[in-house]
Amino acid sequence: MNHNRRAFLKTSAAAAGLAISRASLGDEPPVPAEELDRVAAEPVLHADSLTEPVRIESMELLRNGRVFLVRVRSRDGAEAIAVPNASRLRDAYPIFLNRVAPFFVGKDARELEPLLWELYRHGSNYKFQGLAFWVCAAAAEFAVLDLLGQMTGKPIGDLLGGVKRRDIAVYRASGNRGNAPEEEVEYLQKIVGEIGAKALKFRLGGRMSRNADSLSGRTEKLIPLVRKTFGDGMTLYGDANSSYDVPHAIRIGRLMEEYDYGFFEEPCPFDHLEETKAAADALSIPVAGGEQEFSHWRFRWMIRHRGVDVVQPDLHYYGGFIRAMRVARMAHAAGLPCTPHMSGSGLGYLDLLHFVSCIPNPAPYHEYKGESGIPFACATSTLQCENGVIQTPSGPGFGIELDPTFVKKAVAVTTL
Ligand SMILES: [Mg+2]
Questions:
Q1: Which residues, in sequence order, are bridge partners of residue 389?
Q2: Domains contained in the chain, CATH given
């Protein structure tokens, strides 16, 4: 296959939101490492319109009930409040208080992108490399991005290279396991019907279960039953949450292929890259993964060696928008789509909208787990899902204003 033909396949497949089929790759070499490094090194953040330094005066962690907030203030009196991932910060917050927030005080917010690397090095923070560290870094990044958005009047997407789309089609994800297939189908009909989604995802296997199902025979029964119930017009995804070894993953994947599923998420233990790639190599259904990943280099390996066909960085777990954009760009260079994993805490769906609004290679549908109940106003979008589509806000930063009473009632979180 000549270069142009291959490039065309890549472009058209990406435009259709599909991974290139492995067969079409033939014996072509993988995308050169230099190309992945080149696109990953391109600046993500554009805050050039701010000509004066934006010195950070304070970065605080607040809590109202089960919701965490990060408030950042500049020396000139600008302020932003972002909503981090509370379900992880509940355990990881000392890292934020001791290692992340103090680092940003006195720094120039416009330098956020290089500062993320310095934060990683600072005080040997890299020794904490993992979800617990990066979820704290993301909490800070979200707040600083919102601050820059407030000061420039730009939405997150325009700070990160430009909003390319505002209408984002979502898929409704079920978090159930262990219920009977008939009950799950009823539940899927309910949640899909609520938002008019054209795509859905449900859970396979037993979750990190070494091949055991959550209920004997549930997965094998659900895969055909969901297709039969929703018909050929519905895009279907399945998520095994690391349930299978390679032979089991191939067996379940073949069944998904038979019923024309869109992707197979985390078939094998998420950090067992060899097994994930072996399953992906054997199957024609695209394999998706990356929600637990926190290493740039492992993402790069998985993209370059086609360990997955769809990349799913989590904006919180992976350390924020800027790092996740590098993953999307590397995947784009390899002809692969990106659909971020959505943390089910904080304002995950809002974060996802902003990210998808500006990446070069969105998959056709993105994860939606429903609203969080956090009170806010949004002047530029209803943020309601209509016919399976939600509109990204276009106001400054995240484009929302948290309920001032809710913020006022939040108390500062401090270390012991
Ligand atoms: Mg998943």
A1: 169, 386
A2: 158-402 (3.20.20.120)
